[in-house]
Amino acid sequence: MSWIEVKDRVYTFIVGDRSHSMSEEIFKKLGELMDLIREEGYVPVLENDLHNVTTSEKEVLLLYHSEKLAVAFGLIATPPRAPIRVKKNLRVCIDCHTFLKFVSKVVTREIIVRDINRFHHFRDGNCSCGDYW
């Protein structure tokens, strides 16, 4: 589960969540982000995903992680230069960590994610944790 606060209101996302009133726009934005970061060299990190499904099914499962949905919403709902701040109840997975590094680069926004272990400050394609989390 991930949370993002926008205009004094907290929005909660879970994996694959389509209950948000703006879910269509959020999923569209997520698709646009995926196109942009793939052009930059992003490849989903599937090795640590333990689901017993095909590779393409793993990619779909990873695509809709809660922090990705929260960040996509944040990009829609916040001013263009404002940092995006997301809180998460679990550790950020390596694929989401990689995704967030690429997104911070292509949208030139700071993304701050507080997971169960630490704050991750993503800026210009890098994370403050130095990829050790």
From TrEMBL:
Q: Domain of life, per the record?
A: Eukaryota
Q: Which InterPro entries match?
A: DYW_dom, E2_motif
Single GO molecular function:
zinc ion binding
Q: Which residues form the DYW domain?
A: 41-133
* Similarity field: Belongs to the PPR family. PCMP-H subfamily.
Q: What is this protein called?
A: DYW domain-containing protein
Q: Which organism is it from?
A: Lactuca virosa
